[in-house]
Design brief:
The structure is a single chain. With 389 residues, the chain is α+β, with helices and mostly antiparallel strands. The chain has two domains: 228 residues, 3-Layer(bba) Sandwich (FAD/NAD(P)-binding domain); 123 residues, D-Amino Acid Oxidase, Chain A, domain 2. The strands form four sheets. The chain has an eight-stranded mixed β-sheet with strand order 6-5-14-15-16-13-17-20. Helix 1 runs parallel beside helix 6. The protein is globular. Bound molecules: 8-demethyl-8-dimethylamino-flavin-adenine-dinucleotide and P-hydroxybenzoic acid.
Amino acid sequence: MRTQVAIIGGGPSGLLLSQLLHRRGIDTVVLERKTRDYVLGRIRAGILESGFVELMREAGVGARMDAESFTHEGTVIAYGDEEFGINFREHTGTDVVVYGQTELTRDLYDAREAEGGKLVFNVENVVINDADSDAPFVTYTVDGVEQRLDCDYVAGCDGFHGVSRQTIPLTVRREYEKVYPFGWLGILSETPPVHDELIYSWSERGFALCSMRNANLSRYYIQCSLSDSPEDWSDENFWEELKRRIPARHAEALVTGPSIEKSIAPLRSFVTEPMRWGRLFLCGDAAHIVPPTGAKGLNTAASDIHYLDHGLVQFYEEGDAEGIDRYSEKALARIWKAERFSWATTNLLHRYPDQSEFDLKMQQAEIAFLRDSSAAQKVFAQNYVGLPY
Ligand code: RFL
Ligand code: PHB
């Protein structure tokens, strides 16, 4: 088989790239290790920057998102029993949108399938060959039968544990990593959200986040120990702990119910450089990870896809390689800023096992500064709604 762009990974990055390129007449094949249902079963991000929303519309998959998503003009920051709001619209003229990763991935799958997109599921043993030559090809097996896909370019959209990043030799690749000494325990429940905006809450007992997917679907997280497993937490214990970590008025209003999903995610900051090697481009989680505190994971994947899509279109339509040659540099410039915001917001709101009394005072002073300074709120808002592409 032959295609123009071989895309490894059928998560949001790979599907969005495939859909955008298809609209410009560029042929792709998406190779996904799992099934469509498995990919859609993963509960992940919930907040979209306006840049991502635009990209979904540009890809022709914005209709359901526009009809069903919720616009959030701001967010709440709580500390102990106190709280204050940060209004994104007032500070930046922009909002964010609540629309789950599951839903946008479903929209992308539906569009690719309706338009005859080539998606291969259950692929195993993916190997990217000769990425540093003019004739790369990908080999893989399906049902034990080896296949070969020749292509002009390879987009590595296969997430943090994929093979694409590992294809870049260690002599070329440089990795930067920070692992945090805690995780997030998240639950999804068919209950109305406790508040109409997200609540990011600092507490003596550790961080908590109240988020949502729709009017009857809530997503809540609490900071947990890395040694915890979801089975250690009954629903009842989760709700009790959450209530202790948010201001009393919200705890009293909280509607609890059975969880329909419960999982733990470790927190990590990670960047690999460069994001291009020969004819291989890394996109999304394959190249970088942020802790979820700033809601930047999926949104940084989207900006990568924007840069790569534009670079490839410029190459195929105008014969100009400038965009693909500068892909890594452009993508990384934006990513490092999102890494900084996610790291800073994580540091601001979590309890650290080795935190000294001085460290605690610094955290409190920083929260108070954010509460009292319009300039600080503006900086937070600019980062949260997303820096320009
Ligand atoms: P994905 O979504 O991981 O998709 C990669 C796809 O590649 C497939 N794959 C392979 N396919 C073929 N061959 C191989 N060798 C392959 N290896 C892997 C996988 O099956 C998968 O389908 O990466 P992508 O597309 O770059 O999208 C990135 C986002 O998914 C990610 O940034 C966010 O979900 C991060 N993230 C969150 N971000 C937020 O903004 N807010 C959140 O609340 C949030 N929660 C999360 C998260 C990530 C999590 N992970 C990765 C553990 C919660 C979790 C649990
Ligand atoms: C979510 O709804 O899953 C979510 C929202 C905001 C975050 C992280 C996760 O910062």
